[in-house]
């Protein structure tokens, strides 16, 4: 073991490793661990590259950093109230902690989660091996909008991370199940894991992939820490190294051995736009405790996103012909929004309308025209620069998303445009109202009777 510690000390003596640890530790609380058995005092920080080696010489084996970013981590006091912590917090990264006793399951889960992020137009995320059998996916705070439903994003911790983790888990559920079962039969998984078939299945008798792999949502809490980049895992003696997000399935454990670690892969990139805007909106719109079977369906890899209604209806791209759209097809909330707003809610209304029209396959030019017409009706129009930036962000994302669900009180009810009619009882989203109206009218059209033969 002493020989291993000497090897670890030489590793932390590398200036490139020190610089990488310092860079990822900026504005974060840091906790040091001694041989995986005890932690140093909290809060603590790392300031200089030499701090890493100095602490390693004192017996520190690993470094752990907070998901939250702070004005000054040293001002944190254990037992602080939520409001006090919110005042010190300047942001937080969404860290998805994927873990399983079986490395291959973690690997497949991480790959599918990254595919889901790509579907949402998110490019600036980092992936790293946890150091044992799991992975960490990190979405930087800069990828999120500054506020959602009038609430500052920086104050949405830990619920923001929990919502996103839960939401993405539901998205990949079916595909993860298929991928794992393509490798092993459920009976083989039962034998390998020691779990009964009942433990591996949902109440409906389907294989539940999250019985063998976990996306950490429960343990996410304020001042929650995760293993720093280039820090050792004392149980496996492997290093938490960054992983090329295009080659996740090719990653081998040997790449994390101390003697094989290099700095060739960039971990986090600063996003140029609010790439995760749609993701966090949809995550908060989703049911707070969705079951494994009754949940919204994401059509991944396709051109659009549509909610599957409880009645079994599923709308697809070919169902939509916006040239047939008339005012009577619009839900009451959208009609009221289009009349312009006299008070607060203009930014939220902009988000609703942009996604509503994009969900109806309107072109970029048509959406811009519609939004400008709406904005000019507002008592105080939004600044042109703000509208352009939001439209630009929308158009850069090739996917389409639903506007916020009707049940999201931060939108329609809070703005004062939720005036439901009978059909509203059957739908969960304003877009579904319009699609049902258009589909119903299409079905009522009389069929042409062929002329009698002469």
Supply the key terms.
single chain, 454 residues, alpha+beta, DNA primase, PRIM domain, 2 domains, 15 helices, 10% strand, globular
Quick description:
The chain has 454 residues and is of the alpha+beta class. Helices cover 37% and strands 10% of the residues.
Description:
A hairpin with a 3-residue loop joins strand 1 and strand 2. The termini are far apart. The protein folds into two domains: 2-260, DNA primase, PRIM domain, CATH 3.90.920; 313-441, no CATH class. Strands 2-1-3-12 form a four-stranded antiparallel sheet, with no helix packed on it. A four-stranded antiparallel sheet has the order 7-8-6-11. The chain has a two-stranded antiparallel ribbon with strand order 4-5. Helix content is 37%, strand content 10%. It has 15 helices and 14 strands. The radius of gyration is 25 Å and the shape is globular. By secondary structure, it is of the alpha+beta class.
């Amino acid at each position: 073991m002493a020989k291993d510690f000497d090897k670890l000390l030489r590793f932390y003596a590398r200036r490139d490793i020190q610089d990488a640890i310092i860079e990822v530790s900026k504005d974060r609380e840091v906790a040091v661990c001694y041989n995986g058995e005890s932690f140093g005092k909290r809060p603590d920080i790392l300031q200089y590259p030499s701090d890493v080696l100095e602490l390693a010489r004192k017996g520190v084996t690993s470094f752990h950093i907070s998901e939250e970013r702070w004005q000054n981590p040293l001002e944190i006091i254990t037992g602080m109230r939520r409001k006090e912590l919110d005042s010190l917090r300047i942001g937080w990264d969404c860290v998805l902690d994927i873990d399983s006793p079986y490395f291959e399951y973690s690997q497949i889960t991480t790959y599918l989660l990254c595919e889901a992020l790509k579907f949402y137009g998110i490019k600036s995320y980092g992936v790293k091996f946890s150091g044992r059998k799991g992975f960490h996916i990190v979405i930087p705070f800069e990828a999120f909008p500054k506020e959602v439903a009038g609430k500052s994003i920086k104050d949405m911790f830990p619920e923001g991370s929990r919502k996103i983790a839960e939401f993405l888990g539901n998205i990949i559920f079916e595909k993860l199940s298929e991928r794992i079962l393509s490798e092993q039969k459920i009976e083989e998984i039962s034998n390998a894991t020691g779990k009964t078939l009942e433990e591996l299945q949902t109440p409906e008798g389907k294989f539940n992939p999250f019985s063998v792999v976990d996306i950490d949502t429960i343990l996410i809490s304020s001042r929650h820490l995760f293993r720093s980049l280039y820090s050792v895992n004392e149980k496996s003696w492997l290093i938490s190294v960054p992983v090329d997000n295009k080659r996740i399935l090719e990653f081998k454990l040997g790449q994390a051995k101390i003697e094989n670690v290099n700095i060739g892969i960039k971990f986090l990139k600063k996003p140029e736009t609010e790439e995760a805007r749609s993701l966090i909106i949809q995550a908060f719109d989703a049911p707070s405790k969705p079951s494994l079977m009754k949940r919204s369906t994401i059509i991944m890899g396709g051109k659009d996103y549509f909610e599957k209604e409880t009645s079994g209806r599923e709308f697809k791209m070919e169902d939509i012909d916006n040239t047939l759209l008339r005012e009577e097809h619009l839900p009451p909330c959208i009609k009221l929004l289009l009349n312009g707003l006299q008070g607060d809610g203009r930014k939220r209304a902009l988000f609703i309308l942009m996604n509503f029209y994009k969900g109806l396959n309107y072109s970029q030019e048509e959406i811009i025209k519609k939004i400008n017409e709406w904005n000019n009706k507002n008592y105080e129009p939004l600044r042109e620069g703000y509208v352009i930036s939001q439209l630009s962000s929308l158009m850069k994302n090739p996917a389409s998303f639903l506007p916020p669900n009707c049940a999201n009180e931060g939108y329609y009810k809070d703005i004062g445009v939720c005036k439901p009619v009978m059909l509203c009882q059957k739908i969960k989203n304003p877009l579904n109202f319009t699609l049902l109206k258009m589909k119903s009218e299409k079905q009522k059209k009389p069929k042409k009777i062929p002329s009698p033969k002469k």
